[in-house]
Design goal:
65% of the residues lie in helices and 3% in strands. The radius of gyration is 14 Å and the shape is globular. Helix 1 packs across helix 6.
Length: 122
């Protein structure tokens, strides 16, 4: 399932603008998860964190920056805490920095729009 999520987010980065909602991700990537069930939503969060950690470790931007938390303007605390674990800064500071998420999304999109990166890493 993580492979499907990663592939979907790479394609999303290349073809769409902005961010994708959890519900749209689940539906369009055909994950079969019910986000009304807390453990299934937690599992999706775990998979997104796993994907982003692997991407970051391999020198690529975290793909989960493209997934918008329902009812918020962008990301929830868990995303920023993940960024802190990856060494990007203190999570509260990252969350308050309006440019941080915008720059991360732009970096992610630019990385995957580069045809050489797409061919090598997708």
């Amino acid at each position: 399932m993580t492979g499907r999520i990663r592939t979907y987010l790479i394609r999303y980065a290349r073809r769409q603008t902005g961010t994708v909602s959890y519900l749209t991700l689940v539906q369009e990537a055909e994950l079969g998860l019910n986000l009304d069930i807390s453990h299934e939503k937690s599992r999706l969060n775990e998979m997104l964190a796993e994907i982003s950690t692997t991407e970051h470790t391999d020198g690529r931007p975290p793909l989960s920056c493209l997934v918008k938390v329902p009812g918020s303007k962008g990301q929830g605390d868990n995303f920023y805490k993940l960024c802190e674990k990856m060494g990007m800064g203190e999570w509260r500071s990252l969350k308050q920095d309006e440019e941080f998420l915008k720059n991360l999304v732009r970096t992610c999109r630019d990385f995957w729009l580069d045809e050489a990166n797409f061919q090598k890493f997708a």
